Amino acid sequence: MRVALFITCVNDTLFPGTGKAVVSLLRRLGCDVDFPAAQTCCGQMHVNTGYRAEGVRLARHFTEVFAGYDAVVAPSGSCAAMVREQYPKLAKPGSRGAAAIAEVTPKVHELSEFLIDVLKVEDVGAYFPHRVTYHPTCHSLRGLHLGDRPTRLLRHVRGLELVPLPGAEECCGFGGTFAVKNPAVSAAMGADKTRSIMDTGAEVLCAADNSCLMHIGGTLSRQQTGVRTMHLAEILASTEEAQ
Length: 243
Prior knowledge:
Blueprint: E1 2-5, H1 9-14, H2 16-28, E2 32-34, H3 44-48, H4 52-65, E3 71-74, H5 77-90, H6 96-104, E4 108-110, H7 111-118, E5 131-134, H8 138-143, H9 149-155, E6 161-163, H10 177-181, H11 183-200, E7 204-207, H12 210-222, E8 228-231, H13 232-237
Parallel strand pairs: 1-2, 1-3, 3-4, 5-6, 5-7, 7-8
Helix pairs in contact: 4-6, 11-12
InterPro entries: Cys_rich_dom
Organism: Nonomuraea monospora
Protein name: (Fe-S)-binding protein
């Protein structure tokens, strides 16, 4: 398959290792992976704060950049949900933009969706000998309805002990601009999530969105818990040779 990596702003700017992990993993599974350099922000921040015109412009650019690929894979439930859920609402019905969106958006997948639903694989040949707990981020849980796809993949990782996270479906408090507009509430929600993580005894907290991991990881670090945060892609890309 000819697959394009949609890296997303947060990953490109702050977590480039996640993008590298996606490429390594997909190539290991036989995909021809491309990185369209012209890609930009998907427009989620703009649309969520009322800048609809900018969102329309960015949606148009997205469809131009990613046209022609068999699939577009994003290591972010949040940004994948933006493209699939919000783009169709931004286009004028019957317009060329609407047609382009209808063509491209069904091919956009969050990583675990792509692995399980498209490649039909659950065991990706990973090895990660650590105690791990998984946080289902809000957009991946409520927007994309990923369900147990990420944990099914984690259960097939050799050496990995997956432990359930109490209150897993509760928001961590990040919410993009929510954390900026409501910092005290956001911090309190992050502290609640951190306590739940500590109750698991896990060495590593895993999620499908680095934005949420950044938020939770800040609290974990400030409290000197010793718990690491890792994106799902980085765990799935790990092999025994790389340990």
